[in-house]
Structures are given as structure tokens and as C-alpha cells.
Amino acid sequence: MTRPGSGASAETPGGLRLFDAHCHLDFAENAVELADGLARRGIGALSATVTPSDYELAAALLADCPNVRVALGLHPWWVADGRCGEADVARFERLAAKARFVGEVGLDFAPAHADARKAQLAAFERVARACADAERDGRAATPPPHSGPLPATPERDGRRVLSLHAVRAAGAVLDVLERTGAAQACTCVFHWFSGTSDELQRALGLECLFSINPRMLATKRGRAYARALPPDRLLLETDLPAQGAGRADAADAESALQGALCELASLRGESPADLAACLARTGARILALPRAVPQPR
User: Fold this and answer.
1) Do 40 and 89 touch, CB atoms closer than 8 A?
2) Which of 46, 97, 146, 274 pairs with 266 at a CA distance of 20 to 30 A?
3) What is the average per-residue pLDDT within 272-295?
4) What is the pTM of this model?
């Protein structure tokens, strides 16, 4: 069965070769077309949202896109400038009981947002606690329909996935994750990690993962971290499209992912094919999507 006007099947794709662990499909005017274009290219995606209301809208919009997981978000920028207040945090807490995927959430203590440190911490504490409590209550086993069908596969660990924003705040994010139990209960993925080397080691000790995008690889610190991270802790991301960008093209996302993959392989001195296979295994497990298995030559 297909959606009217769509060439993409509503069945789960038979296998995906690339996984975008952090993007914002609902920022595009043509979000469904974009998701379908990704599916045709063999790309699965975690589409992060920035507010609970955006999550509900995006979840409905992308409900028939089997290669996409929509994540429940409460972005620290929206908390910092007051666009998200008490009602939004409470709404997040209600939705978190059934949301298998969560993001973009976290903290941002860069100068533009640091004045709202207290509000951000209070909101993120509730976000992390809601996720940890729901996971412990066992409510992650059956996601809502808009999360897409979950295949019965031994690779899927079934835990909630948190895609984390941490700018000049990695230590504070880790404090909250540990204090609330989210670090132990959930699969935590740092989106575009830029913390210190000590914070990186602490995150590794908590079994966090890290999604790498081309802009991270353009920095000296980002390249150093990309070299040092264990291969099974790595994911790829685009962080695309930008808000207000209008229409978006799946080819741009594919190019960004392929470029990051090739650069990452070069930095690590690894075969692009071998690294791609490792990243695909991790992406498929985290997003609970089927990966394409390369055929022997």
C-alpha cells in the first residue's frame, strides 16, 4: 500500500545502507517527499523535533514513512528564550511515556543561552527523569504507531534512544543523566559532541554513543574525537535541513552522509566499506530498522 502521490512503499524497507542519526525532516516544506527520497536511497533517519507540539505534528505527518523514526523533542534553545515553558515540559512528560525515540533534548550554556541555565537545567532534569521512569516502567516495549513498525530482530535492544544537545554543557548533561538514571536506563547519543576529553571519557564510561556530522569533522577537536572513539560507538548524522530552509533534497543528505563516512574512514585509517558496515549495524540497532547486508563478491 502506498500513500497517494508517493512512490514509496508503506512496508518496512527491505534493507537500509546508511542511517542519519540526527536530522530535522519536519523543518523541510516537503518533509514526506524528503523521507521518501531517503528511502529510495536506502537511508534510515532519526528525525528530531524541537517541541512536543512539533513532535505530535511530525509524527502524524511522517507516520507512513517506514524508514523514519520521529523523536520527541524539547530543545534547550526553545526553553532558554521562553518559547517552551511549563506547559510544554508537562506535555513532554506525558508524551514520554510512549515515545520510543527522544530528541533533541539537552543543555546549551553558550553565551547566547547561558542566562537561562537554571530554566534549562530544571527542564532537562524533568525530561531525563521522565524517560528513565518510563523505561523502568517497561512502557518502551510497544511504541505508538507513528514510530513505525519495529522488526523482531536480535539486534534491537528495545531501550529508549535519547539524542542529546550539549554545548559547553557536556558535564552538566552527564550529571543529569546519571542523577535521573537515564544514563543507565536509556541509550544516550551525543549529537555533535564538543566537550572536553575528560567529558568524552566519562560519556564513554556510561556507554554513550556519538553521532558525527561533516561540521564536527571540520574542527580539530572533532577530528581527534572521531579518530579515538571505538567504532561501535559511532553513528553518522547530517543535522539537516536547517530551519526555514524551505524545500530539501534527499541527495544533499546522502552526499553529507557519504562525505562524512569517507572522511571518517580516512581519519581512522579504515576501509570505507568496513566502516560503513559497522556504522550500519549500529544505526539499524539504535533505530530498530533493517539494514542491508552486503552480498559476498
Assistant:
1) no
2) 46
3) 92
4) 0.90
User: Which candidate, 225, 224, 228, 232, places its Cα nearest to that of 207?
Assistant: 232
Residue 151 has pLDDT above 50, yes or no: no
Q: Which residues have C-beta within 8 Å of that of residue 245, sequence separation ≥ 6?
A: 27, 28
pLDDT confidence of residue 294: 67
233-249 pLDDT, tens digit each: 999 999 999 999 899 99
How high is the pLDDT of residue 153?
Answer: 33
Phi, psi of 215 (to 5 degrees): -70, -30
- Cβ atoms of 43 and 17 within 8 Å: the answer is yes
Tally of CB atoms within 10 A around 290: 18
Taking the C-alpha atoms of residue 231 and residue 23, their distance in angstroms, rounded to an integer, is 21
